[in-house]
């Protein structure tokens, strides 16, 4: 993919993320009776984008370290290992998606 195509795709993805975050912020500000500036939404979008980039890099590296070219649920669980609440939520979700396959036990 050419650099200009990659940049265009990244801008479209960032725009979609900004729109989604804006909708969530609007819903929450209505519930709380507060206001959020467009600058806040923009800053939050940039922070979420940076986190997505970090997570995607980590997942790609975990898969590569395991000798795979595809990211698996094991990689996602490895990423969540330091956040017990997230790990429990993901395990619960995985168990509902694959009821026949037992999840790995926590060490």
UniProtKB/TrEMBL annotation:
Give the Gene Ontology MF terms in alphabetical order.
chromatin binding; DNA binding; protein heterodimerization activity
One Pfam family assigned to this protein is CENP-S
Question: Key word Zinc present in the record?
Answer: no
- UniProt KW DNA damage keyword: yes
Q: Which SUPFAM superfamilies match?
A: Histone-fold
Keywords for the protein's UniProt record, in alphabetical order:
DNA damage, DNA repair, DNA-binding
Taxonomy, superkingdom: Eukaryota
Annotated GO biological processes are: DNA repair; replication fork processing; resolution of meiotic recombination intermediates
Q: Which InterPro entries match?
A: CENP-S/Mhf1 (IPR029003), Histone-fold (IPR009072)
Please provide, in alphabetical order, the Gene Ontology terms of the cellular component aspect for this entry: FANCM-MHF complex
Task: Report the sequence similarity comment from the record.
Answer: Belongs to the TAF9 family. CENP-S/MHF1 subfamily.
Please give the PANTHER family that the UniProt record associates with this protein: CENTROMERE PROTEIN S, CORTISTATIN
- State what protein this is by name: Centromere protein S
Q: What is the lineage of its organism?
A: Eukaryota, Fungi, Dikarya, Ascomycota, Pezizomycotina
């Amino acid at each position: 993919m050419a650099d200009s195509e990659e940049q265009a795709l990244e801008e479209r993805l960032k725009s979609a993320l900004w729109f989604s975050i804006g909708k969530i912020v609007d819903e929450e500000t209505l519930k709380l009776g507060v206001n959020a500036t467009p600058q806040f939404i923009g800053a939050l979008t940039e922070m979420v984008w940076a986190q997505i980039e970090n997570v995607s890099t980590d997942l790609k590296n975990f898969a590569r370290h395991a000798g795979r070219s595809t990211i698996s649920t094991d990689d996602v669980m490895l990423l969540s290992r330091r956040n017990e609440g997230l790990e429990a939520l993901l395990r619960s979700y995985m168990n509902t998606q694959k009821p026949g396959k037992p999840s790995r036990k926590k060490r």
